[in-house]
Specification:
The complex is a heterodimer of chains A (177) and B (156).
Chain A (H helix, E strand, L loop, with lengths): L1 H26 L3 H34 L2 H8 L4 H13 L8 H10 L4 H13 L2 H11 L1 H26 L11
Helix pairs in contact in A: 1-2, 4-6, 5-6, 6-8, 7-8
Chain B lengths: L1 H17 L1 H35 L2 H10 L3 H13 L4 H13 L4 H13 L5 H8 L1 H25 L1
Classes of the chains: A mainly alpha (177), B mainly alpha (156).
């Protein structure tokens, strides 16, 4: 029983302290703490709206897509087609970067190569279509086009570099918990 | 957001019609993964909330607008790397900077580092990839983002 409490504290200790700080800030009308609390609410709402949906999709993906298929299309030896597929997959997604890590972990578990896992992350951070649409609206198509054009070789190169560095190093993507 | 909700609903419906047991197993798996990552996620959100309070958008605009030379670029790169600003704040901010006459290469560096480098999300990333790999990935992305931003500056 005691060890369970310790595990809980280790997991949520920081969050509890943060919550206490926000609560005390409200009671004492400490403007800074209240502002931080309001910021937190905005981000928390974004997360709690998007992530459960994403994890439903991830769970369904997990049970429906067989490992052989990912292995064949995105695994080591999938070549240029593997890169193309993984980039397309990343481009179709939306949401903040922290939503990409669990997908990357799932892809890896299903046999996606190290190189393609990192290319996935790179494409996710730079050329998601929903984000591009938004970016074009504010900064113009020339800005987005140039950014996409220059980013592409960069994140592909990063994928190759990391895969090369991690070869023979027993690298694995862990799933927390 | 609406697209995501519709996609999820459709996928869920199709999956449920095809195989009830499998669907429930998938939902359970998804829920477990979500709950496992939730604590680390809340830490990141708390860090971001504190950061945005310490460095509000108005202050960012002031910093980025200061120098168009190397100090401006260094400031933009640093700010972009640390911040985790959602697109709905970052792009309008970029547009404001353009209108107030900030050099395009400074804005480009800010946006590219913002997207590709995530210092505040490192604790979360490390849970999946380990610290060494996460740091390496972000360091490489930082160099890449700087390169992309500067190249864009030449053409804009």
């Amino acid at each position: 029983m005691k060890s369970r409490a310790v595990v809980f504290l280790k997991k949520f200790g920081f969050v509890l302290v943060f919550a206490a700080f926000i609560a005390i800030s409200w009671i004492t009308r400490f403007a800074g703490g209240m502002e931080i609390g309001r910021n937190f609410r905005v981000f928390f709402l974004e997360m709690i709206l998007i992530l459960p949906l994403m994890f439903i999709l991830i769970g369904l993906f997990d049970v429906w897509v067989p490992r052989e298929r990912i292995m064949r299309h995105l695994g080591p030896g999938s070549g240029a087609w593997g890169i193309l597929w993984v980039v397309l997959l990343a481009m179709l997604q939306a949401g903040p970067l922290y939503g990409a890590f669990p997908v990357a972990a799932l892809l890896w578990r299903k046999g996606c190569s190290v190189r393609n896992v990192f290319i996935y992350l790179g494409a996710f951070t730079t050329i998601k279509i929903p984000m591009l649409a938004f970016e074009v609206g504010f900064l113009g198509w020339k800005f987005s086009l140039l950014r996409g054009l220059f980013s592409f070789p960069v994140f592909i190169a990063i994928g190759f570099l990391l895969a090369f560095y991690l070869k023979n190093r027993q690298f694995e993507v862990r799933e927390p918990g | 957001m609406i697209e995501l909700a519709l996609t999820t609903a459709l996928a869920l419906l199709l999956s449920f019609l095809a195989d009830r047991g499998k669907t429930l197993a998938g939902l359970k798996k998804g829920a477990r993964m979500f709950l496992n990552i939730l604590p680390a996620m809340l830490v990141v959100l708390a860090l971001v909330s504190v950061f945005l309070y310490l460095v509000p958008a108005s202050l960012m605009t002031a910093w980025l607008g200061k120098g168009t030379g190397w100090t401006g670029i260094a400031g933009a790169a640093l700010l972009g790397s640390i911040s985790l600003i959602p697109g709905f704040i970052a792009f309008p901010l970029g547009a404001i900077l353009v209108r107030s006459g900030v050099a395009y290469r400074v804005i480009a560096v800010f946006i590219t580092t913002l997207m590709m480098v995530g210092i505040l999300t490192l604790p979360l990333e490390a849970k999946y990839f380990g610290w060494r790999v996460s740091l390496s990935r972000n360091a490489l992305s930082f160099a890449g983002a700087l390169l992309v931003g500067l190249l864009m500056g030449i053409f804009l």
